[in-house]
Design brief:
The protein is mainly alpha-helical. The chain has one domain. Helix content is 69%, strand content 4%. It is built from 8 helices and 2 strands. Helix 2 packs across helix 6, helix 2 runs parallel beside helix 7 and helix 3 packs across helix 5. The radius of gyration is 21 Å and the shape is elongated. One protoporphyrin IX containing FE binds next to helix 2, helix 3, helix 5 and helix 6. One protoporphyrin IX containing FE (HEM) binds next to helix 2, helix 3, helix 5 and helix 6.
């Protein structure tokens, strides 16, 4: 990626460059927050039955953050294709990332939409929705791995410039707004999760299913903690 091209000594003075720089910093900062949240979400998947409350909570927290990511990247897309000089100079993403980006957006949407849809069905009859949730996850995971590998360095460097004390190279305006947008999406996500968690009670209050017989004579020891087929 063209970090040096955009954030070279003189480029920030060029008209409009601040907008593209600020947009990239915002996109990167949201990416870092998403990376942390998705890591925790990934851990819950390993024992989804036991950690279902956390799984649903983090999943709901993700929604406004993902919406912000969609918004910032859509804005860059529009500015680029309407020939804004700063965004044209910033350039498109690298080829593989560029062509997988629409799929990443579609499958992220599908993953979150099917997750929310699961809250409307009972655990005993999830029908095709659970299958769709898992299938979209499988495809999404591959796309996400490519995305993270392609962007991790830029994500750390760019977001660091806005968030790390005394690291704000080139000082594009709007640092406070960018930070504010990330914080507000996190707060809205937490509020959404707190508000919607009660309707997930058929999933969260479900007893963990056990089967088999224990050596001590207790019922149940083989915990079915995953519903992969
Ligand atoms: C649900 C998760 C995510 C979605 C839907 C998403 C979506 C996108 C899209 C559509 C783009 C523009 C195309 C591109 O440059 O590849 C983008 C850019 C970017 N993403 Fe993500 N992303 C997600 C998570 C992440 C994560 C976890 C990171 C951290 C490594 C990250 C870091 C970045 C960076 C650094 C850019 C480029 C910013 C720029 O230079 O303008 N993203 N993202
Ligand atoms: C709105 C957010 C989300 C909600 C409400 C939600 C809800 C659920 C529910 C109710 C289950 C069924 C658990 C069971 O079978 O006992 C599930 C499973 C699963 N979820 Fe989510 N989810 C959300 C987001 C996500 C995200 C963001 C990911 C991936 C990063 C994900 C990946 C999975 C996977 C892989 C399973 C199957 C786990 C297994 O059976 O082993 N979900 N989710």
């Amino acid at each position: 990626m063209a970090l040096t091209r955009i954030w070279g000594k003189d480029s920030m003075r060029e008209q409009g460059a601040e907008g593209a720089d600020g947009n990239a910093r915002l996109t990167a900062a949201v990416g870092v927050v998403l990376l942390v949240a998705l890591f925790v979400e990934g851990i819950t998947i390993l024992q989804v039955r036991q950690l279902i409350t956390l799984h649903i909570f983090i999943g709901l927290v993700l929604i406004p953050l993902v919406a912000l990511k969609f918004a910032s990247t859509f804005y860059r897309f529009i500015r680029y294709y309407t020939n804004n000089p700063a965004y044209v100079r910033h350039g498109p993403p690298a080829s593989l990332l560029r062509w997988t980006a629409p799929l990443l957006i579609i499958f992220t949407g599908a993953l979150l939409a099917t997750g929310v849809a699961l809250l409307a069905v009972t655990p005993s009859r999830p029908g095709l929705i659970l299958f769709a949730h898992k299938a979209s996850f499988a495809i999404w995971f591959v796309l996400m791995a490519v995305h993270v590998l392609g962007h991790i360095k830029d994500a750390v460097v760019l977001s660091g410039w806005d968030w790390w004390p005394r690291a704000d190279r080139a000082r594009p305006r709007g640092k406070g707004q960018r930070r504010g947008l990330v914080v507000v999406s996190l707060v809205v996500g937490f509020a959404l999760a707190v508000a919607l968690l009660p309707i997930a009670s058929p999933w969260t209050s479900r007893p963990i299913r056990h089967s088999g017989a224990s050596q001590l004579g207790h019922p149940a020891v083989t915990i079915r903690d995953s519903s992969w087929p």
